[in-house]
Automatic annotation (TrEMBL):
Residues 510-627 form the Molybdopterin dinucleotide-binding domain. This is Molybdopterin oxidoreductase. InterPro entries: Asp_de-COase-like_dom_sf, CT_DMSOR/BSOR/TMAOR, MoPterin_dinucl-bd_dom, Mopterin_OxRdtase, Prok_Mopterin_Oxidored. Pfam families: Molybdopterin, Molydop_binding. GO terms for molecular function: electron transfer activity; molybdenum ion binding; molybdopterin cofactor binding; oxidoreductase activity. Residues 2-396 form the Molybdopterin oxidoreductase domain. GO terms for cellular component: outer membrane-bounded periplasmic space. PANTHER family: TRIMETHYLAMINE-N-OXIDE REDUCTASE (PTHR43742), TRIMETHYLAMINE-N-OXIDE REDUCTASE 2 (PTHR43742:SF10). Belongs to the prokaryotic molybdopterin-containing oxidoreductase family. CDD domains: MopB_CT_DMSOR-BSOR-TMAOR. Keywords: Metal-binding, Molybdenum, Oxidoreductase.
């Protein structure tokens, strides 16, 4: 996410530099979809392939009759994508689908978490219970014989085991609408009616990335896939399953014939790797062991951190703990354009250029628009691009030629483009020369199938086009996952109550939802005009239902303190009936501004002083940044001055 440019992509530059030196502690998974990224490879295929091959928005607009969105279809997230967005198409597709008669159901604690053009029915189950709702929907489909048993028999494995669990044969608890109503706080009639609508419609089930960024996050994705398999519509135009419509702009675009060229990163010769969300654990407890995806990982001793193109003090959890962890290595080096929270916690900060100060080319992930990015201005001050910084360091370390291969930035761009053009020519796809490309506005990367439908070939002939699982089928029950013996992620979808489960009368009776912001991308440009305009008293805005605010003597515009046992932060209050009662919504990305005397207190409004640094499960060890139990009170003291500017 650090740059629209593909050559000056911060992580790629860093990995190439470290690999030239011999290697580094590498990361497993990511913060975006860490839980589902591990799960999906066992049950239907790699997450990246599933999303690149997603049924297109064009197919949705033409064929979908019922779009069930667990976690909504966020307008703000649909406007961004890794590497940028060439054209914004989601709104137009949703509008077309709605005009044709497609019905949308948004299942989220936030009413405005779906495009207004969708005219969506809003269902608001208790957060953390989406899997329980899915199990109850499955119960109705199974007990009313609304499932496609032929699809389950020929293209899936493990449905009988799952059905026994749903009926209650396995544990004595039928996952009925009556059971789910008590857990989800929806009515029985609502659950039954939705199941029957799904069965009689061309239904697409979408699960947002947000739902797997919580404890037991794998289960919601797996249960959503299982629901789609029960309906038997996977592989049909406008039907089936998807993970991430509305989470990023590229999902729903047809796969390109090839990705754009990028800087080769080399090979990491170091055998050490950790799940990315376990960075604080590794720094604080080197030598300890964790389970991960069927293996045991011994956390390495890390004495140097080199961070480029990211901001862990934005997206990691329990920031007071992370701050303590960052004191363990002897050296922390950061490349930055701004005085971010991560830069403030570094020993060495090297000023890096922005995208407009360097020559590059770019394309969004899965985006067919490929565009030149000539520099618009000279670097400010002593800033250098990441490539120049690493080349200079590599020269001092005696590996300059291995890192740079003697090429300037423009020489690299032409070299990479020319090789890429040759590979496309071998595939029968013609693109302009580099000179023609560099002076153009953009070119189009060819798209083989503009109307692609996820898993259509598998549906047509599962033996000729099996999914890349151990069985070649969609695994509703996975022998592989079951063999790991994880009680928090058994062999088929289950519901487990999360630890962050606030109740009325408890010390922390509200649930914090830490979602993505409307006015910036993650934490980027938080000090910019657009982001600052959204603040209240200089603090990040937090939204609550008016009834929750009134019960605490709060009014819109108040400066509030959100608190739990891990920490606290200030925020500016917005009251709105678009929030489910019992919820506080505070977006991520406000630059962490800790009180010098208490690093668990953020004066600005970063929710990750409140979120728990615990894994989704032993399977994925992924982040659980989405939810935290909290209380809210009015801030009555002097409002402290901010220093993050």
């Amino acid at each position: 996410w650090s740059s629209a440019g593909r050559f000056h992509h911060g992580q790629s530059q860093l990995h190439r530099f470290l690999n030239t030196l011999g290697g580094y502690v590498s990361g497993l998974g990511d913060y975006s979809y860490g839980a589902s990224g591990v799960l999906l490879q066992h049950v239907v295929g790699r997450a990246d392939d599933l999303m690149a091959d997603a049924t297109t928005w064009e197919s949705v607009a033409e064929h979908t009759e019922l779009f069930v969105a667990f976690g909504g279809v966020s307008e703000k997230n649909s406007a961004v994508g890794p590497g940028g967005v060439g054209r914004h198409t989601t709104r137009e597709a949703i509008t077309r689908a709605r005009r044709r008669g497609c019905e949308f159901v948004s299942i989220s604690p936030i009413a405005d978490d779906t495009f207004a053009e969708a005219g969506a029915q809003w269902l608001s189950p208790r957060p953390g219970t989406d899997t329980a709702l899915m199990l109850a929907l499955a119960y109705v489909l199974e007990c009313e014989n609304l499932v496609d048993r032929e699809f389950l028999r020929t293209r899936c494995v493990g449905y009988p085991e799952f059905a026994r669990y749903v009926r209650g044969d396995a544990d004595g608890v039928p996952k009925s609408p009556e059971w789910a109503a008590g857990v989800c706080e929806l009515t029985v009639d609502t659950i039954v009616a939705l199941a029957r609508r799904m069965a009689r419609s061309r239904t697409l089930i979408n699960v947002s990335w947000s739902l797997q960024r919580q404890q037991h996050g794998e289960q919601t994705v797996w249960a959503g896939l299982t629901l789609a398999a029960m309906l038997g519509q996977i592989g049909l135009p406008g039907g089936g399953f998807q993970h991430g419509y509305g989470s990023t702009s590229d999902i729903g675009l047809p796969r390109r014939v090839a990705s754009p060229p990028a800087l080769p990163q080399g090979k990491n010769l170091a055998p050490s790797a950790i799940p990315v969300a376990r960075i604080a654990d590794a720094l604080l407890h080197p030598g300890s062991e964790i389970d991960y995806n069927g293996s045991t990982i011994r956390l390495p001793e890390i004495d140097l951190i080199y961070w480029v193109g990211g901001n862990p003090f934005h997206h990691h959890q329990d920031l007071a703990r992370l701050r303590q962890a960052f004191r363990k290595p002897s050296t922390v080096v950061v490349h930055e354009q701004f005085w971010t929270s991560t830069a403030r916690h570094a020993d060495v900060v090297l000023p890096a250029t922005m995208s407009i100060e360097r020559d590059d080319f770019g394309a969004g992930r899965n985006d067919p628009d490929f565009f030149p990015m000539p520099a618009l201005t000279r670097p400010a001050g002593s800033a250098r691009d990441d490539y120049a910084i690493f080349w200079a360091l590599a020269e001092r370390l005696g590996v300059g030629e291995s890192f740079s291969e003697g090429r300037s930035v423009l020489e690299w761009l032409e070299h990479l483009y020319t090789g890429w053009r040759g590979r496309l020519a071998e595939m029968g796809c013609a693109v302009p020369t580099f000179e023609e490309f560099w002076t153009s506005e953009r070119i189009a990367i060819p798209v083989p199938d503009p109307g692609q439908v996820l898993l259509s070939a598998f549906r047509e002939n599962p033996d000729a086009a099996p999914v890349p699982t151990s069985s070649g089928r969609i695994e509703i029950f996975s022998d592989t996952i079951a063999s790991f013996g994880y009680d928090d992620c058994p062999g088929h979808p289950v519901w487990r109550r999360p630890q962050e489960w606030p109740e009325p009368g408890e010390q922390y009776p509200l649930l914090l939802i830490s979602n993505q912001p409307r006015t910036r991308l993650h934490s980027q440009l938080d000090v910019g005009e657009t982001s600052v305009r959204s603040k209240i008293g200089g603090r990040e805005p937090a939204r609550m239902h008016p009834a929750d605010a009134a019960a605490r003597g709060l009014e819109a515009g108040d400066i509030i303190r959100i608190v739990n046992a891990r920490g606290s932060c200030l925020a500016g209050l917005i009251t709105t009936e678009t929030m489910r009662p019992g919820i506080v919504q505070l977006s991520t990305g406000a630059w962490y501004d800790p009180d010098p005397a208490d690093p668990s207190f953020c004066r600005h409004g970063n929710p990750n002083v409140l979120t728990p640094d615990v894994p989704s499960s032993r399977l994925s060890q992924a982040t659980t940044a989405q939810h935290a139990a909290v209380e809210v009170e009015k801030w009555t003291g002097p409002v402290p001055e901010l220093v993050v500017d």
